Amino acid sequence: MDRRTFLGAMGAAWAETLQAACRAPADHGGEGGELMPAFFIGHGRPLNAIEDNRFTRGWTDAMKDVPPPRAILCISAHWRTRGTYVTAMSRPRTIHDHGDASRELNLVRYPAPGSPALASKIADAVRATSVVPVDGWGLDHGAWTILCHTFPSADVPVLQLSIDARRPGTWHYELGRELLHFRRRGVLVIGSGNLVHNPSEADLLLSFDGFDWAIEADEILKAKIRAADHGALREYETLGRAVRLAIPAPDHYDPLLYVLGMQTPEDRVTIFNDALAYGGLTMTSVRLWA
Ligand code: ZN
Prior knowledge:
Elements lengths: L2 H7 L2 H11 L15 E5 L11 H10 L7 E6 L3 E2 L2 E4 L5 E2 L8 H4 L9 H10 L5 E4 L3 E2 L1 H10 L7 E3 L2 E2 L4 H10 L8 E7 L18 H15 L3 H5 L6 H6 L7 H8 L6 E5 L3 E2 L3 E2 L2 E5 L1
Helix pairs in contact: 7-11
The structure holds zinc ion (ZN).
Protein backbone atom coordinates (compact mmCIF):
# COMPACT_ATOMS: atom_id res chain seq x y z
CA MET A 1 0.00 0.00 0.00
CA ASP A 2 1.49 3.34 -0.95
CA ARG A 3 1.48 6.37 1.33
CA ARG A 4 -1.53 8.01 -0.30
CA THR A 5 -3.62 4.85 -0.25
CA PHE A 6 -2.64 4.36 3.35
CA LEU A 7 -3.80 7.85 4.24
CA GLY A 8 -7.03 7.31 2.36
CA ALA A 9 -7.69 4.14 4.31
CA MET A 10 -7.40 5.94 7.62
CA GLY A 11 -9.96 8.22 9.17
CA ALA A 12 -9.70 11.87 8.15
CA ALA A 13 -8.68 13.04 11.61
CA TRP A 14 -5.89 10.49 11.86
CA ALA A 15 -4.74 11.34 8.36
CA GLU A 16 -4.55 15.03 9.28
CA THR A 17 -2.52 14.27 12.36
CA LEU A 18 -0.13 12.07 10.43
CA GLN A 19 0.26 14.58 7.61
CA ALA A 20 1.03 17.35 10.12
CA ALA A 21 3.71 15.12 11.61
CA CYS A 22 5.09 14.38 8.15
CA ARG A 23 5.46 18.10 7.46
CA ALA A 24 7.39 18.73 10.66
CA PRO A 25 10.90 19.91 9.89
CA ALA A 26 13.35 17.11 9.27
CA ASP A 27 15.99 16.40 11.87
CA HIS A 28 19.00 18.00 10.25
CA GLY A 29 21.33 17.13 13.06
CA GLY A 30 23.90 15.01 11.26
CA GLU A 31 24.62 11.61 9.78
CA GLY A 32 21.78 10.05 11.76
CA GLY A 33 19.20 12.61 10.65
CA GLU A 34 15.95 11.74 8.97
CA LEU A 35 16.43 10.52 5.41
CA MET A 36 15.14 13.07 2.93
CA PRO A 37 13.71 11.84 -0.37
CA ALA A 38 15.58 12.01 -3.65
CA PHE A 39 13.78 12.63 -6.93
CA PHE A 40 14.44 12.16 -10.58
CA ILE A 41 11.98 14.38 -12.40
CA GLY A 42 11.13 14.46 -16.08
CA HIS A 43 10.93 18.21 -16.75
CA GLY A 44 9.69 18.08 -20.36
CA ARG A 45 9.19 21.32 -22.24
CA PRO A 46 10.05 24.67 -20.60
CA LEU A 47 6.44 25.90 -20.77
CA ASN A 48 5.68 23.45 -17.97
CA ALA A 49 7.13 26.15 -15.71
CA ILE A 50 4.11 28.39 -16.27
CA GLU A 51 1.42 25.83 -17.03
CA ASP A 52 -0.88 23.94 -14.73
CA ASN A 53 -1.15 20.46 -16.22
CA ARG A 54 -1.15 16.80 -15.22
CA PHE A 55 2.64 16.70 -15.06
CA THR A 56 3.08 19.80 -12.92
CA ARG A 57 0.35 18.52 -10.59
CA GLY A 58 2.20 15.20 -10.46
CA TRP A 59 5.31 17.02 -9.24
CA THR A 60 3.48 18.87 -6.48
CA ASP A 61 1.58 15.72 -5.43
CA ALA A 62 4.82 13.75 -5.15
CA MET A 63 6.39 16.41 -2.93
CA LYS A 64 3.48 17.44 -0.74
CA ASP A 65 4.45 15.19 2.18
CA VAL A 66 8.17 16.03 2.06
CA PRO A 67 9.40 17.70 5.25
CA PRO A 68 10.70 21.24 4.74
CA PRO A 69 14.26 20.79 3.47
CA ARG A 70 17.26 22.72 4.70
CA ALA A 71 18.39 23.06 1.08
CA ILE A 72 17.71 21.64 -2.37
CA LEU A 73 20.49 20.22 -4.52
CA CYS A 74 19.52 20.08 -8.17
CA ILE A 75 21.42 18.14 -10.82
CA SER A 76 20.07 19.50 -14.08
CA ALA A 77 20.52 18.11 -17.57
CA HIS A 78 21.15 21.67 -18.70
CA TRP A 79 24.40 22.30 -16.85
CA ARG A 80 27.03 20.15 -18.54
CA THR A 81 30.63 21.13 -18.09
CA ARG A 82 34.24 20.01 -18.23
CA GLY A 83 34.87 19.21 -14.59
CA THR A 84 32.32 19.34 -11.77
CA TYR A 85 31.06 22.58 -10.26
CA VAL A 86 28.60 23.57 -7.57
CA THR A 87 26.86 26.94 -7.36
CA ALA A 88 28.20 28.89 -4.40
CA MET A 89 26.58 32.31 -4.66
CA SER A 90 24.22 33.59 -1.98
CA ARG A 91 21.76 34.87 -4.62
CA PRO A 92 21.77 32.64 -7.73
CA ARG A 93 20.32 34.32 -10.80
CA THR A 94 17.54 32.80 -12.89
CA ILE A 95 19.04 31.63 -16.19
CA HIS A 96 16.79 31.71 -19.25
CA ASP A 97 18.54 28.96 -21.18
CA HIS A 98 15.38 27.35 -22.54
CA GLY A 99 15.44 28.73 -26.08
CA ASP A 100 11.74 29.53 -25.95
CA ALA A 101 10.60 32.96 -27.11
CA SER A 102 7.60 33.06 -24.78
CA ARG A 103 7.58 36.47 -23.11
CA GLU A 104 5.85 35.03 -20.06
CA LEU A 105 8.54 32.39 -19.70
CA ASN A 106 11.28 34.97 -20.01
CA LEU A 107 9.72 36.94 -17.17
CA VAL A 108 9.97 34.02 -14.77
CA ARG A 109 12.25 34.68 -11.83
CA TYR A 110 13.00 32.11 -9.17
CA PRO A 111 14.61 34.18 -6.41
CA ALA A 112 15.64 31.40 -4.01
CA PRO A 113 18.80 32.03 -2.00
CA GLY A 114 21.90 29.89 -2.43
CA SER A 115 24.09 28.47 0.32
CA PRO A 116 27.82 29.15 0.03
CA ALA A 117 28.36 27.16 3.24
CA LEU A 118 26.70 24.05 1.87
CA ALA A 119 28.57 24.42 -1.42
CA SER A 120 31.82 24.29 0.56
CA LYS A 121 30.67 21.20 2.44
CA ILE A 122 29.80 19.44 -0.81
CA ALA A 123 33.17 20.36 -2.29
CA ASP A 124 34.93 19.07 0.83
CA ALA A 125 32.93 15.84 0.96
CA VAL A 126 33.71 14.52 -2.51
CA ARG A 127 36.89 12.48 -2.92
CA ALA A 128 36.50 11.05 -6.45
CA THR A 129 36.94 14.39 -8.17
CA SER A 130 37.41 18.05 -7.47
CA VAL A 131 34.06 19.80 -7.06
CA VAL A 132 34.65 23.50 -7.58
CA PRO A 133 32.35 26.10 -5.97
CA VAL A 134 31.55 28.83 -8.52
CA ASP A 135 29.63 32.08 -8.81
CA GLY A 136 29.28 31.97 -12.57
CA TRP A 137 26.11 29.96 -13.09
CA GLY A 138 22.74 30.20 -11.36
CA LEU A 139 19.48 28.28 -11.64
CA ASP A 140 18.75 27.00 -15.14
CA HIS A 141 15.35 26.00 -16.46
CA GLY A 142 15.96 22.35 -15.56
CA ALA A 143 15.75 23.52 -11.95
CA TRP A 144 13.23 26.35 -11.94
CA THR A 145 10.68 24.67 -14.23
CA ILE A 146 10.11 22.23 -11.37
CA LEU A 147 10.76 24.50 -8.38
CA CYS A 148 8.23 27.16 -9.49
CA HIS A 149 5.57 24.54 -8.80
CA THR A 150 6.96 22.53 -5.92
CA PHE A 151 8.53 25.30 -3.82
CA PRO A 152 6.70 28.40 -5.11
CA SER A 153 7.69 30.59 -2.17
CA ALA A 154 11.38 30.24 -3.21
CA ASP A 155 12.51 30.43 0.42
CA VAL A 156 14.63 27.26 0.51
CA PRO A 157 18.28 27.61 -0.57
CA VAL A 158 18.93 25.95 -3.93
CA LEU A 159 22.27 24.74 -5.27
CA GLN A 160 23.07 23.18 -8.60
CA LEU A 161 25.75 20.58 -9.26
CA SER A 162 27.08 20.43 -12.81
CA ILE A 163 27.50 17.24 -14.83
CA ASP A 164 30.97 16.54 -16.19
CA ALA A 165 30.09 15.72 -19.81
CA ARG A 166 33.31 13.76 -20.36
CA ARG A 167 32.48 11.06 -17.81
CA PRO A 168 30.67 7.74 -18.23
CA GLY A 169 27.52 6.67 -16.44
CA THR A 170 29.27 4.71 -13.71
CA TRP A 171 31.31 7.77 -12.78
CA HIS A 172 28.16 9.89 -12.31
CA TYR A 173 26.55 7.11 -10.27
CA GLU A 174 29.57 6.88 -7.97
CA LEU A 175 29.62 10.64 -7.48
CA GLY A 176 25.96 10.45 -6.48
CA ARG A 177 26.92 7.77 -3.95
CA GLU A 178 29.44 10.15 -2.40
CA LEU A 179 26.70 12.71 -1.89
CA LEU A 180 24.23 10.31 -0.29
CA HIS A 181 24.92 11.42 3.28
CA PHE A 182 23.59 14.91 2.49
CA ARG A 183 20.14 13.30 2.33
CA ARG A 184 20.49 12.79 6.09
CA ARG A 185 21.41 16.42 6.56
CA GLY A 186 18.17 17.94 5.38
CA VAL A 187 19.08 18.20 1.70
CA LEU A 188 16.41 17.36 -0.85
CA VAL A 189 17.98 16.06 -4.06
CA ILE A 190 16.33 16.61 -7.45
CA GLY A 191 17.81 15.16 -10.61
CA SER A 192 16.12 16.92 -13.52
CA GLY A 193 16.11 15.42 -17.00
CA ASN A 194 13.98 12.97 -18.99
CA LEU A 195 14.15 9.19 -19.05
CA VAL A 196 13.35 8.90 -22.76
CA HIS A 197 14.61 11.98 -24.56
CA ASN A 198 15.11 11.99 -28.30
CA PRO A 199 14.50 15.60 -29.34
CA SER A 200 14.94 14.85 -33.02
CA GLU A 201 12.00 12.46 -32.79
CA ALA A 202 9.90 14.52 -30.41
CA ASP A 203 7.17 16.86 -31.54
CA LEU A 204 6.58 19.55 -28.96
CA LEU A 205 3.41 20.74 -30.66
CA LEU A 206 1.62 17.46 -31.18
CA SER A 207 1.08 15.19 -28.26
CA PHE A 208 0.38 11.62 -29.33
CA ASP A 209 0.75 8.16 -27.93
CA GLY A 210 4.42 7.87 -28.69
CA PHE A 211 6.75 5.81 -30.83
CA ASP A 212 6.94 2.08 -30.21
CA TRP A 213 10.62 2.31 -29.32
CA ALA A 214 9.92 5.08 -26.79
CA ILE A 215 7.25 3.00 -25.08
CA GLU A 216 9.47 -0.09 -25.09
CA ALA A 217 12.50 1.79 -23.75
CA ASP A 218 10.49 3.43 -20.99
CA GLU A 219 9.17 0.02 -19.88
CA ILE A 220 12.66 -1.53 -19.90
CA LEU A 221 14.13 1.34 -17.89
CA LYS A 222 11.29 1.41 -15.35
CA ALA A 223 11.64 -2.34 -14.77
CA LYS A 224 15.35 -1.89 -14.11
CA ILE A 225 14.68 1.01 -11.74
CA ARG A 226 12.06 -1.00 -9.82
CA ALA A 227 14.47 -3.96 -9.60
CA ALA A 228 17.33 -1.67 -8.50
CA ASP A 229 19.40 -3.14 -11.34
CA HIS A 230 21.76 -0.21 -11.26
CA GLY A 231 24.50 -2.04 -13.14
CA ALA A 232 22.26 -2.30 -16.20
CA LEU A 233 21.10 1.31 -15.83
CA ARG A 234 24.66 2.61 -15.64
CA GLU A 235 25.38 0.88 -18.94
CA TYR A 236 22.09 1.63 -20.66
CA GLU A 237 23.69 1.25 -24.12
CA THR A 238 23.64 -2.52 -23.52
CA LEU A 239 19.85 -2.56 -23.02
CA GLY A 240 19.00 -2.85 -26.69
CA ARG A 241 18.01 -0.82 -29.72
CA ALA A 242 14.92 0.80 -28.21
CA VAL A 243 16.90 2.20 -25.28
CA ARG A 244 19.68 3.40 -27.56
CA LEU A 245 17.10 5.22 -29.68
CA ALA A 246 15.47 6.66 -26.58
CA ILE A 247 18.77 7.97 -25.21
CA PRO A 248 20.77 9.17 -28.22
CA ALA A 249 22.87 11.30 -25.87
CA PRO A 250 23.17 10.98 -22.08
CA ASP A 251 22.46 14.61 -21.15
CA HIS A 252 18.89 14.09 -19.88
CA TYR A 253 19.62 10.60 -18.52
CA ASP A 254 22.71 11.30 -16.40
CA PRO A 255 20.74 13.09 -13.63
CA LEU A 256 18.96 9.78 -12.98
CA LEU A 257 22.30 8.09 -12.27
CA TYR A 258 23.17 10.63 -9.56
CA VAL A 259 19.83 9.96 -7.87
CA LEU A 260 20.17 6.17 -8.11
CA GLY A 261 23.66 6.49 -6.64
CA MET A 262 21.97 7.98 -3.57
CA GLN A 263 19.54 5.08 -3.13
CA THR A 264 19.61 3.29 0.23
CA PRO A 265 18.21 -0.16 1.13
CA GLU A 266 15.51 1.67 3.12
CA ASP A 267 14.19 3.54 0.09
CA ARG A 268 10.96 2.60 -1.59
CA VAL A 269 10.77 3.37 -5.29
CA THR A 270 7.72 5.28 -6.50
CA ILE A 271 7.27 6.01 -10.18
CA PHE A 272 4.95 8.87 -11.13
CA ASN A 273 4.10 11.01 -14.16
CA ASP A 274 4.41 7.72 -15.96
CA ALA A 275 3.52 8.95 -19.43
CA LEU A 276 4.85 9.66 -22.87
CA ALA A 277 4.65 13.14 -24.26
CA TYR A 278 5.56 14.62 -27.61
CA GLY A 279 6.24 11.23 -29.19
CA GLY A 280 9.89 10.68 -28.32
CA LEU A 281 9.99 11.90 -24.75
CA THR A 282 8.68 10.58 -21.47
CA MET A 283 7.84 12.49 -18.31
CA THR A 284 8.50 9.41 -16.15
CA SER A 285 9.69 10.47 -12.71
CA VAL A 286 11.04 8.58 -9.73
CA ARG A 287 10.88 9.16 -6.00
CA LEU A 288 13.17 7.37 -3.57
CA TRP A 289 12.09 7.56 0.03
CA ALA A 290 11.92 5.28 3.02
ZN1 ZN B 1 15.62 19.64 -20.82
